[in-house]
Structures
1.
Amino acid sequence: MMATRTVRLCRGAFAAPQRFKSAMPDAAPATETSDLPPGFRSSGHIEMKTAVPGPISVATIASIGKTNPIGSFLAVVDYEKSFGNYLVCADGNTMLDCVGQIGSLPLGYNHPALMAKMASPEGISASINRPTLGMLPPVGWDDRVMNGLMSVAPAGQTNVVTMGCGSTANENAYKAATITYMRNKRDGVAITDEEMQSAIKNELPGCPKLSIMSFHGAFHGRTLGCLATTHSKPDHKIDVPTFDWPIASFPAAKFPLADHVEENMAEVERCLAEVETLIAEYAASCPVAAVIIEPIQGEGGDNHALPEFFHGLRAITKEHGVAFIVDEVQTGGGPSGKIWAHEHWNLVDPPDIVVFAKKLQIAGYYHTDAFKPTMPYQIFNTWMGDPAKLLQTEVYVDMLEQDALLDNVTAAGDVLISGLQSIAQDFPEDVLNVRGVGTFCSITLSSPKLRDTLLAQCRSRGLLISGCGPASVRFRPCLYFNGDHAHEACSILGEAVGAAKAAL
Amino acid sequence: MMATRTVRLCRGAFAAPQRFKSAMPDAAPATETSDLPPGFRSSGHIEMKTAVPGPISVATIASIGKTNPIGSFLAVVDYEKSFGNYLVCADGNTMLDCVGQIGSLPLGYNHPALMAKMASPEGISASINRPTLGMLPPVGWDDRVMNGLMSVAPAGQTNVVTMGCGSTANENAYKAATITYMRNKRDGVAITDEEMQSAIKNELPGCPKLSIMSFHGAFHGRTLGCLATTHSKPDHKIDVPTFDWPIASFPAAKFPLADHVEENMAEVERCLAEVETLIAEYAASCPVAAVIIEPIQGEGGDNHALPEFFHGLRAITKEHGVAFIVDEVQTGGGPSGKIWAHEHWNLVDPPDIVVFAKKLQIAGYYHTDAFKPTMPYQIFNTWMGDPAKLLQTEVYVDMLEQDALLDNVTAAGDVLISGLQSIAQDFPEDVLNVRGVGTFCSITLSSPKLRDTLLAQCRSRGLLISGCGPASVRFRPCLYFNGDHAHEACSILGEAVGAAKAAL
């Protein structure tokens, strides 16, 4: 089903998630779709009245800034008026949203099924009676999990732990990995009293020296454990204490792939050898308990790698008893045209842990049976997510099936890639490396300055896209983004590249 | 207004939070209250039909356990049927809830004002259109923050950052502290390119060796940074790598206080001296950037300390340029009879950072102007909390005022403490150290086994309370828990102590 792409690094088909295994193998794309308001299926709704941010946004941002120090506000949004793929800002501008709240918008704005669910007695109760999900779960929680999260579980993943955001999900995945590493190392011997008593004081042997390996360019979150595995921008890490954990090279693919097969395979081999070397180097001082990787490095610049690299990583981690954690926080939930981007790798052995957040609305991680904690309450958090979000995950899963959203993403991605290729042909010196899978697409500009100018030019024309890495632009629309929206986006983007060049 | 207490370690009055400064100084307790359904004001609703957990809970927990490995489920709850202070479980038992979802239930179950807010178009939009709050906040976000979080900001706290849970709030508070420490150390000199380039690789000087000091018995969360400051139970920490950060003694008060003034003051001096020694010891290898402390150590066993200790800590941290972080995740939001438990200390200089979560529904931290980050996006998270929760914070603040909930808590706490004292008089060998402020009350049993048996005996009689520390029992009801509920709770508790003794 996948169309020709300039770069198609993620390809093939892994076993389909459980719910779709029986329901979808012979399914043709849906011919009937749900009755949706404007902006979900229809395009052409952009309407610009002011600059972005407009005067109302500017005033509100100044007002927010009086008590909020984070300095990252772009515009103020009228979410009640936003619809489908279109975001309406406080100044009344209607924009095509290809950022999707950093890829965390699954079903667009004000989806009727989500509205109905949250207006129901069940939805309101879930919103206002926030439970300790790990102690006193609500009636029906087992069904909610089976119909929602477990119905889209990656093949091989038999357990799921819910958390509040991607960072807490990764932090707890790291804990599951080190706890399992130590249990395996003990090989049936019970935890000693000395271990327990030293742990409470942050001392050996209870708090072991163990490391989580990550990759240059990676982004896995911003809490202290996650931050020790994040290497996309120094701004995230400067002046924050960290762990001395190993960092390996993410393979730098040369494009077009067809012209650089040998070089790219050599780069894969080099990077895999580096992983093995680091595992050996850290074995004595701070053994590697887990390797974490994104299927596509999002924040780091939409860096893709060959499936052969991931196959090699799975083999190496298995050989050394190291957990293989796949961070699908940004790639998961459908933007690649499959629910999980790692399905494109065709792995034989599944990952040990798969982390999710963003498009799933609830965060957490799946894992195999081998990664269960040793004791009750070892993996725990007061809230462990939010049942109101899991209700929305269930609606997301229903819409995925009812509206054939994965097919929609694949078809939209084909149009988007074609449009981006056409722009790259018009501006061969300026627009480079058209790449993507599904609508998880990006281009690289010839300079950071051109990229930043381009983003502003797009914004003023009613197209919201975002930067990643030093000079790239990424698309992260919702799952209803279709071919018409892709045409609309590319038409503006092409015009904006010309304007950005002229403005430099 | 505070009644005589066996232990009254938190006392006095700090400056009132902003909203209540003008509104409440002369206010008598409210005579008129909102029209509330049964269970908010009324007591006597306990009705037991089965053991807890009953057969439906047991079956559902088994079903949940097939895909959920955390092993900490107690019972399954029918939240739609629960009301006010009463929790209704899946088996139809109606129980008086003095746990309040580990102290995170501000307004009881199914409060009509919360229901109305979340059923409104604004509430539904906030639920389903989850924004990147740090980039594209909703219209009215500035008003939401001012009417909600900032209206109850502790005195001296001029900024607020929202996050998803207590752990992410503390993690980011640590970052705000180390970033500020390094900025102060640079004293106006710009960050160097070497610092930026080394930070991205987890190396010096960009990722400095800095530590966060905590206290034995503390609980600050379970992500890796937080866990390095948590020392309440080894189960939380075993097999997880950590930082070599200093841990100081939390003063062990001797009861009754009136009989041990000199010893208790000597203990305060000893612990403060230890803090100073540790700051000096770590100065060369891993300087202390912040000290974090709970006003009352909750998870660690409801350990109280004299205000003099906190005054001393504030003075020492100020002298050494170390951030003073007060973790009000469990104590904040009203259970002490003030919105913030540290208001009872009567500090002259406010804390540098105050962390909140639980009863506020949204999590985050307040801080003074000196702790603003250096660069945009330095403190950031995709979601930064959830606007649906901030709407609920606003309702919470409205009810706090409308229903005079702080007065209610203070009055209920007096009844509760009297009842607990009476039980302690009946069982002088078994029930020890009656203590508390507001309804944040606890007792210590003579053994962990008696405590655990007591909890089960209470549960079977329809009273939900929870353990903390090795042998203590804590009360964490919602803010509508009143004198009648306290009578009901103590009546069951007294009976259950006798039954627990007999059962041992």
Note: Chain A touches chain B through 130 residues (CB under 8 Å).
2.
Amino acid sequence: MQEAREDPPLDEGLGPEELAEAWPLLDPSARLEGFRMLERHVAEDFFFTLSSRDQAELLIDLPPLERRSWLRQLAPDDVVDLLQEAPEEERDPLLSLLDAPTTREVQALLAYAEDKAGGLMSTRYARVRPDMTVDEAITYLRRQAREDIETIYYTYVLDAGQKILGVVSFRELFAARGTQPVREIMRTDVVTVPEDMDQESVSRLFARHDLAAMPVVDLGGRMKGIVTVDDIVDVVEEEATEDIQKIGGTEALDAPYLEIGMFEMIRKRAVWLAALFLGEMLTSTAMKAYEAEIAQAVVLALFLPLIISSGGNSGSQATTLVIRAMALGEVRLRDWWRVVRREILAGLGLGLILAAIGLLRILVWGRFFGTYGEHYVLIATAVSASLIGVVLWGTLAGSMLPFVLRWLGFDPASASAPFVATLVDVSGIMIYFTVASRILHGTLL
Amino acid sequence: MQEAREDPPLDEGLGPEELAEAWPLLDPSARLEGFRMLERHVAEDFFFTLSSRDQAELLIDLPPLERRSWLRQLAPDDVVDLLQEAPEEERDPLLSLLDAPTTREVQALLAYAEDKAGGLMSTRYARVRPDMTVDEAITYLRRQAREDIETIYYTYVLDAGQKILGVVSFRELFAARGTQPVREIMRTDVVTVPEDMDQESVSRLFARHDLAAMPVVDLGGRMKGIVTVDDIVDVVEEEATEDIQKIGGTEALDAPYLEIGMFEMIRKRAVWLAALFLGEMLTSTAMKAYEAEIAQAVVLALFLPLIISSGGNSGSQATTLVIRAMALGEVRLRDWWRVVRREILAGLGLGLILAAIGLLRILVWGRFFGTYGEHYVLIATAVSASLIGVVLWGTLAGSMLPFVLRWLGFDPASASAPFVATLVDVSGIMIYFTVASRILHGTLL
């Protein structure tokens, strides 16, 4: 048991747990050294738990003669992941280390994009013929299990043309009478995944059907491989990371935070930040239009950051909720009108709450400290009325932007909080000064 | 095959796929009606794919006499999930529908918090004794498979006191010689999960060890159940949703967007929005301190939204990247100094880029359109210098806030983009006016 394991003496190097712990902090040569200190069978287990990225880096740091025995440990789909993480020029040399049938399998898998069902699948699955008896099938599978099949949880029943006739779970096979033919116990309502389905849809399908594995088929309905639920955990995590990073207003990093190069990190952040900055420049253009009003009533400028940030914050909330609901499949394009109705109500409610707080604050300070001059009641009214307008508008704009982006074919997660805030800032300025001009006309303005 | 399934005639109701599709849009009575139109075995499959929340709602809408046969279909851990989604007053009546041993199992599971390993686990796992032969074990498991065990992917080897001696994967058992004792082929380095481990840590453990299931043990090392990877998919998705909603500046909704009540939704959003609004009020206090400067040089106010939003945007980026890296276990508390060093560099780089763009813009407009009066070069200098300061500060503050929150024992994801933007707005105003006063002293001010 792991808990009972004793720490190895230090001169023998780190144990696998310590090495895994220290891994992100080690430079390549220290990683290599730590790895080579492990006993062979421990090192093998350790190697399997590394990410494909780390596996690729480690392998390339090894002397060429040692690489083969490590690469050949991996299943074809894991080799593919590793190759996709390796530098372009290393791929062919690595591929040449495999045996001929595996090379063919890997090349076939490499043809699929990494984020499609075909790129996720394993080609090593358990299969039987429909006319086998349960006992024959179990014996046959026992032989297949000696080879490296990905999962024996489901066994697929295929015809001679590789078409799927049915599926039988291992538990069902096990529980059945030994003399029954497989055909009689298999289920025929098999949920299949087209090979070019993108990984986010595949993970939705898993969530919906609650299966441990699903077969991947080509256009002709021929079985090509299986996707297993443990690959889906990685997909879900990866997609969530991408969405979170986009919502935060950067490009997706596509690499662990501490490992990505500084130049690359600045580039990914600068692109969005500069775009937002250019958009935000419109605020100074908008402000320019109200320069005379500000000069006449400087007190108006005091509430400007408060008002535009309230619009930005309510927009961030709305856009984030809608983006996530879309990613989870809870909200679809055609639900836009239901979302509009909900967000108008929510925006009004939230606007009224903020307006009430703002009104109270300005009235109290104006009345007791004389902070805002003699017209503080009018100022309080102008600020509150603007808040309702700005929050309502921010909420609506924030909730609709993901729909517009998806409708245009972009990723709705690009409707990041900063993007919405920028959009709402310019209109916030316009709403504020328009409302203030009306209310303060003849007094302050 | 699903693709080949024909649509049922309309007067027979919706098929299971159409019903699943329409589900979120239907009201309770339409759901019930659609459900009862399904053939019994189709309805069973359909029932299993529903979320625990939907299962609970559907069950409560059924006449009391029909409830039992549905509830008894579920495994104990699924019953627990269903009960946790049911209203308080319905739980005991539902529990009384189960048979006595299942009631005991469910009550034991209910004692665990929903988000702990014990709350995720299933108590129905495959177990054998160490001195059985492989053939005996397979026969024995074949009998167990007829009962409802959660997964047969791993078989646990237990001693008489329920302590785990080892684990053998089904594939290994299958591939082994029939006469070997299980003891000889089992692995003894079993990774175990303590029953009170929180679900986020459990999902990290799954990611690290790449296993399909893990045994849950109590303090005495006795096996209590297993957690399977398909439960982890839901955990990962749930945790990501919570983080994303917090990053967007709301409390986690804990319910699908379209299903949560309007009052509840406004409440969850209003709490944060009002808190941010109160914080943002400090901006008008800060502005008040510079009222004289604004009155003297209104042109300064024009760039205020641009500058504070740049600070907010760079802060959002930094905080989001750090929150996600923490959630993925890539960055730990003790890495704070490495993050500081990276973010100082990134902040300086990003600040310089925005400053250059801002400088260029003001110089060009000032030179060719005379937009900003005679002192446009000084204004351009003041804006650019402030941008470097504000972006650097926003980046640093945004990246450190998640560390401070985690260190204080809060969820780092509460360092939402709007929270950071609010924090940075006030300091942005101070940085801008301080820098501008220095640079413009004797000319505009």
Note: Strands of chain A lie at 126-128, 154-158, 164-169, 193-194, 213-217, 223-228.
